[in-house]
Amino acid sequence: MVEPAASQVFDIAIIGGGINGCGIARDAAGRGRSVFLCEQNDLGSGTSSASTKLIHGGLRYLEYYEFRLVREALREREVLWGIAPHIVWPLRFVLPYHRKLRPRWLLRLGLFLYDNIGGRKLLPRTRSVNLHRDVTGGPLKPEFRRGFEYSDCWVEDSRLVVLNASAAASMGAIIAPRTKCVSAEKHGGIWDVTVAGPDGTRAVIQARTLVNAAGPWVDQVVQNVVRDNNRAPVRLVQGSHIVVPRLYEHDGCYIFQNDDKRIFFVIPYEQDFTLIGTTDQDYHGDPADVRASAEEIAYLCRSTSDYLKTPVTPDMVCWTYSGVRPLYAEHEQASGSAAQAATRDYVLKLDAAEGEPPLLTIFGGKITTYRRLAESVLAKLDPHLPAATGKSAGWTGTLPLPGGDFPRDGFDSQLAALERDYPFLPRKQLRRLLRLYGTRSQMILAGAHSSQDLGRDFGAGLSEAELRYLVQHEWARTAADVLWRRTKLGLRLDAPAQAALEEAMRGLVAELVPGPLAMPPSAVVARPTEIEHTR
Ligand code: FAD
Q: May I ask the CATH class of domain 10-45+159-234+343-400+520-531?
């Protein structure tokens, strides 16, 4: 791992460890760029862990004529499935025809475009469904007789972030979670970037270019870090999800239309649950404080109950989460358009006056298109940097993410191999590990001859060996990092088990992370004091 020399000038400094920041870090590091990324909290703790978790073209965006975005996003489905088959997999969505809402011909046309404009090669095409005969019609009210079924993909969103960060670090990028960028100043064609670790210790690093990938905090960075007087044209739109016990047996998902013209999804989740979302409403608070409101929960329950035979009620909700979309809104702020109508496409603003170091600010974007966004960012920064010496543009679409080095259709054979190698572990536990870590499951399991060899069991198959892996290789530091972003075991561990986990994490961090606890973690991350330099 590269430790920055005291006087190193990074090619790129990135503010924000969400999917966009980490995607840029991976691509840039692969191209031979020196990269520094700081994230004020845990990696993926912003919007990138609060999505619907779909790699999708966005059927709905066709209504807003967002053909560029839809085409690019549709293409990414099979690309991302190919590079990360452990955390990305195909889903089938049923769209029931509702006689009072969009006409059947419009649904058919939208799905025809969806099947044909985005380079679909492996995902199955759209088909019509007789909901009175098909298994997917079972949970629906009898008035829904006909529908369509089409393909999109699932992604474990926060894991996609960490895997991009991990890949970047393995190629020399410095990834500094729990490190906030507090100011960035231009001096002699170079950025002086001041960061503060969790104990307040400050450090300065230097970079030739700076990327503001702060998601919903983009304007805060514009105002408080780079101190530009112009407000960023961003519209913050809240979206919330609810999780309830599994509503039906089959594996299919639903996309339902509402009479407010919105659509929402109902998706089997974590084996025993169903995920329902999302909402769209303007948000004016601090993105860190966003929570699902009682109205949003009631709205999602009511809307789902309009379609399902068995009603969904707020008392069934076991978990909610909420995120803030940082949408580009230059032309919309004044127009008063509905939140769901704001563009989901990304916009990159390059500020590069003669003789000054460039600042690139990111607005909007989808998890689905993060890889293409990264390519566009690097294309904009390239002319301002020395010639790159690493891989060529496009490499991120063919080389696997960590743990994803097996074929798209290879999950079952990987699982069978794990069952052969570790017959003493339940299939459910091995399946969970393979879905999270892919071939890297071996880094947790190797050498174990019994379940006791994996150390203490914290419940639901979470072992000490897994925790050690997460602390050493994935920057996990707290129980919340493990329960909600590296895994979703927060849905299964009760309060005493979570408290025991918190305590164990403190012990493991003290044992495994060099240096003071409060400093940015892991041996792969340079601590601010180590990268401080005098100008
Ligand atoms: P973030 O993930 O928010 O990352 C920005 C990071 O910057 C944060 O972690 C923050 O802590 C950090 N930061 C901010 N300021 C500083 C600072 N000063 N110093 C250091 N760090 C800082 N997209 C899809 O493709 N599919 C979907 O199904 C989907 N569903 C969605 C559902 C909802 C409800 C929402 C809200 C969004 C959804 N999206 C979806 C969109 C997608 O989630 C976002 O576009 C994407 O996650 C944005 O990533 P980001 O990296 O720009 O922002």
A: alpha beta
